[in-house]
Design brief:
flat; GatC; mainly alpha; 2 strands; Aspartyl/glutamyl-tRNA(Asn/Gln) amidotransferase subunit C; 3 helices; about 35% helix; EC 6.3.5.-; nucleotide-binding
Length: about 90
């Protein structure tokens, strides 16, 4: 599968040198080829081990970052909110 790194870079707002673009394009193509080779799995639950069930951890909220710290990574902020392009008329 051919990967269009210029389009991906534009969509993700990243900038690559021509050398990086060629390198990442080859790496992405290798990843897609590997994923395409993965076998299909049966969704009937045959892979679930009844002797070792998965247990979800408790969802405990933690305050790790301040609002200011998070917003400093946003490209445009107004009144404490992230500004995004209008997508709906």
């Amino acid at each position: 599968m051919k990967i269009d790194m210029k389009r991906l870079a534009k969509l993700s707002k990243l900038k690559f040198s021509p050398e990086e673009e060629a390198k990442f394009e080859k790496e992405m193509e290798n990843i897609v080829a590997m994923v395409e080779k993965l076998p299909d799995i049966d969704a009937s639950g045959a892979l679930i081990d009844p002797d070792n069930p998965m247990v979800m951890r408790k969802d405990v909220p933690e305050k790790k970052f301040s609002r200011e710290e998070l917003l400093k990574n946003a490209p445009d902020v107004q009144a404490g909110c992230i500004v995004v392009p209008k997508v709906v008329d």
